[in-house]
Amino acid sequence: MRVTFEIPGEPCGKGRPRFTAGGRAYTPAKTAHYENLVKCEYERQCEGHRFGDGPLRMEIVAYYQIPASASKTQKALMREGMRRPTKKPDADNVLKIIADALNQLAYPDDAQIVSATVTKAYAADDRPCVLVVIEEV
Predict the structure, then answer these.
(1) What domains can you pick out in the chain, each with its CATH number?
(2) How confident is the model over 43-94, as pLDDT tens digits?
(3) How far apart are CA 102 and CA 58, in angstroms?
(4) pTM for this model (two decimals)
(5) Does residue 133 contact residue 4 with C-beta atoms inside 8 Å?
(6) What distance in Å separates the CA atoms of residue 15 and residue 37, rounded to the nearest whole number?
């Protein structure tokens, strides 16, 4: 089984937990909001499909907005994939926020992910998003 879905908007990475003055940990609002977006898009596009407890492979392609400040030459190189984004969020944090958001929704535990790839690219159509493919191994 294989599912594919798209998360609209600029890619977001998993934020570090924050702590109150009393020492209690909490998830940053930006992280919580993005995790909710991931969950909603998965349920909407994949009709709530749930994988079993077997091994999974996850492929993520994070498409970033081309900077308005880039020259015409640089923009052309970005659209053609000749220049790739080296900006934040880090690829591992993009994987982490999506894998964590799908826990108990798409699969019982993200520990089932035995193979994962994250690719960062510029959105040739000026429409930033994240494409996610999950499949049984």
Answers:
(1) 2-16+24-136 (3.30.1330.70)
(2) 999 998 999 999 999 999 999 999 999 999 999 999 999 999 999 999 999 9
(3) 11
(4) 0.92
(5) yes
(6) 15
